[in-house]
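2024-03-11 09:14:02 DEBUG pipeline.ingest accepted 1 chain
2024-03-11 09:14:02 DEBUG pipeline.ingest length=168
2024-03-11 09:14:03 DEBUG pipeline.predict start
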Amino acid sequence: MVPEFALCFRGRLWDELAATGVELHDMGPVKFSRPWTVIRARMRLRSLLKRNHYDAVVCHACWPHAVFGSTVCKSKTMLVGWLHDALNGKHWLDKAAGKVGANLLIANSNYTASCSKIVFRDVPTKTVYLPVEETSLLDSSIDRDQVRREFTTSNEDVVILQASRLDR
């Protein structure tokens, strides 16, 4: 597989991908409140899809799916939606992405996959867990002591860690 990435905004993701040497395509900034930016980005993607053969285009989340999904479908390229969050079908982006449809959905959990049917009724969905390396808890005392020192926290203090993405 030779991945290529089409992005609408430059920033940290662009820089980190560029550092790996993968091919990047600039679709230009897009705002739905400025329809000409959506049209221009779709034209850039249409041109890219005509110049190159791709087996699939993967849209991460509903925003790029709503922006680019119809262009991908018109090109007869497989459209894959990668869901990183549970959908409820109430947000206008969910509805816009659902109207486009997809050939396949990839979900980051079984829960996310189960919610996908609210927006993408008849689209096959596969769950793919992110490849996070399991760490040994046996050697964590060294790391724990070091982190406590960095945050000037004594061994007697109770520390609660919440690892999550905070969304309303």
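2024-03-11 09:14:41 DEBUG pipeline.report Residues 35-51 form the longest helix (17 residues).
2024-03-11 09:14:41 DEBUG pipeline.predict end
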